[in-house]
Amino acid sequence: MSFEDLKNQTFPSITKNDWKLKAEESLKGKTVDSLQTTTYEAITLQALYTRLDEQKISDYPGGSDFRRGIYPLGYQTSNWKVAQRISSKSFAELKGKLQEAIEKGQTAISFEVSKQLFNGKETLREILGELTEIYPFAINTKGMQSALIAELTEMAVQQGNGDKITGYVANDPISMFAEEGQMSNEVLAVWSEDIKLANNKLPNLQTVLINTAVYHQGGANAVQELGIAAATGVYYIQRLLEDGMRLDEALSKMVFQFSIGGNFFMELAKLRAARILWNKITGVYGAEPSSRGMHIAAETSNYTKAVYDPHVNILRAGNEAFAAVLGGVQYLHVTPFDDITGSTQLSERIARNTQNILMEEAYLQKVADPAGGSWYIESLTGELAEKGWGYFQQLEANGGILEVLKSSKLQYDIKAISNKRQHDIFTRKQSVIGTNVYANLDEQVPGSKENSLNNYFSNDHMTINFEAIKQTRVAEPFESLRKISKDIENKSGSEPFVSMLCLGELRNYKPRLDFMKGFLAAGGLKAAESGSITTYEAAKQFVINQNTKYLCLCGSNDQYEQYGHEIVTALTKEFPDRVIYLAGLPEKEQQIQWLKEGIKQFVHVKSNCYETLSIILTEMEVLAGEASKA
Known about the structure:
Elements (H helix, E strand, L loop, with lengths): L2 H6 L7 H11 L10 E2 L5 E2 L35 E2 L8 H13 L20 H5 L2 H4 L2 E4 L4 H15 L7 E5 L1 H8 L1 E3 H17 L4 E6 L1 H5 L4 H21 L4 H6 L1 E7 L3 H21 L11 E5 L11 H15 L4 E3 L11 H16 L14 H23 L3 H6 L2 H18 L36 E3 L10 H17 L4 E7 L2 H16 L4 E8 L2 H10 L4 E5 L2 H18 L4 E5 L4 H10 L1 E5 L5 H21 L1
Parallel strand pairs: 3-10, 4-5, 5-7, 7-8, 8-9, 9-10, 12-13, 12-14, 14-15, 15-16
Antiparallel strand pairs: 1-2, 6-11
């Protein structure tokens, strides 16, 4: 073959159907459709995305529907702000921690707000000084917006620099209503006055927050978060317009806060879809294109984090931060890996450096919308935007965001998704590393820190009560089991365990023994191994020596047939108080026989791990309590 012939060679054209036929050859009888997955958003993810899935998008960010971002050159001209929330008990402590953070990469003034912080003699002016003219704010004020706005207004008057204070010092009272289960018109009236005051004295400061983190933390899916964000935003636009603010002014005051979960592509697409929806809504109001861009403050999700094996949280937060940056956020907070139990200087530094790595080593600030044009991401973005718009219309048809909270329709919708997530965690269809799989039984953890809304409604008696959206984490149910296990150990003086009756040789029982060890470890239970058992006498002696009523047969199907039936029948007769499980799931006909012989339950890959362990631990806890009183 000549060099000229080689240059003119091309690959044969391959269609999606060609790929499908080839793929199904390797699937051994299954179809390509078996590779599809359905998300909690009821979106079916295809096995392959092609040019046929291409979406019509802008050639560059900052145009069209803003899905690709709000700035044409992305982060090259307007980098995202490293907005790590600093925890402190006084303004004096805040000053030192903020200064250190800024020296090490922080690019926004961001801190946790509490009443305790305002109890000292120091003022924001003394603490922040000229920092307010250099760095933007990034603060969710929660119930302290009036105090912060008053401090900043006074500082601006004294220094004559109100127009130089930027960023956001904002509050979303509706999200706080949802979290607390109480609603107050008085709170909304005070909020409106704060917005007016800040608009006059601090014209470049954003003060209106639309915070979907509360709903995310309750288990909402991406579609629900988008619909809620849109409905809340519309409510605030209407209220500000009624208060006499111009549309462009009202929009300039708004910033949206999203929690970023562990589903990388879904969360990335969620942020892109949010901008599409907001562009559509503001367009309906008649806003100029320059006013339609959505400003986003993101935080890595607390919902996905776990108390046990906390260093895994570093990986979770890194994945979430990466999705947030690719999604085009303006502010980002990365949760320290031990934030649930109380962050440390080390964990706070790692969290901050996660952003520094994305910026300085991954060079994400140098590429404008790297996800743009991806067939998969753009298709997912389009589906999310469509479904999010549909859910927004549902909320509006039911009276808007306040009415769906008061009627508990919103809570019902979120709870339905939360229950699905919980079931998948309980059955280990979804893994939480270090919690429901690969749990470390030797790990010791401190207690969780307290979290409160600072008695937001304590002085307000004109409230409407309704069902609150419970703030939770996916790992919490299993963490509660680990706590029960530790309580049993403290009462009884020994670690709770289940005895493993291992049938046959090591190669016969080891696969199911390893499975049971992992299964039990999720609840803090150990597995006590018998060693090889082939006779009832050996099994009997092992049971006598074990200080537990819970037993489990482990072995291959052949060993179960060869030794298992005889051993279970005899054990049930001689030790009727013992509870016997069997590792694995026999055929239906065999299940009936095993149950008659004395097996209580079959433990297998589709078992509800949480439910099974909860029953065992609850009974153990009662027995340990009775023994401690004896």
